[in-house]
Amino acid sequence: MPDIQRAIKELQETAIVMSGIQSRQAELLKQHGEWLHSHDLAMTQARERGRETDERIDKLVMAIGELLRRDGK
Questions:
Q1: What does the alpha-carbon distance between residue 62 and residue 46 come to, in Å, rounded to a whole number?
Q2: How far, CA to CA in Å, does 58 sit from each of 4, 9, 62, 72?
Q3: Lowest mean pLDDT among 3-7, 40-44, 51-55, 67-71
Q4: What confidence tens digit (pLDDT) does each residue in 16-26 have?
Q5: Taken in order 26, 32, 35, 41, is the CA torsion positive or negative?
Q6: How many Å separate Cα 18 from the centre of its chain?
Q7: Which of 5, 21, 31, 58 is 20 to 30 A from 12 via CA?
Q8: How far apart, in whole angstroms, are the C-alpha atoms of residue 68 and residue 72?
Q9: What pLDDT is recorded for position 37?
């Protein structure tokens, strides 16, 4: 009987540990999901700023080209 009781106690302890691990993993997964959402938003904003910068550079290049053409006439 003591072997069976010991086995039952080990199984109970294992179940407690597994429950704790599952809870921690669930919390980590939630945190990672939140971080991933935040990261995706930041990347979208960075791409938009890059597009805006490219547009400004294009306008400046066109304006400089126009000035050079006027001065060349």
A1: 24
A2: 79, 73, 6, 21
A3: 67-71
A4: 999 999 999 99
A5: negative
A6: 28
A7: 31
A8: 6
A9: 98
pLDDT tens, position by position, 21-53 = 999 999 999 999 999 999 999 999 999 999 999
3-state helix, strand, coil in the chain (%, to 5): 95, 0, 5
Q: Please give the Cα distance from 56 to 68 (Å, whole number).
A: 18
Residue 19 structure tokens: 């429950």
Name the residue among 26, 8, 27 with its Cα closest to residue 16. Answer: 8
Torsion of CA 29, 35, 37, 43, to 10 degrees: -140
pLDDT confidence of residue 73: 64
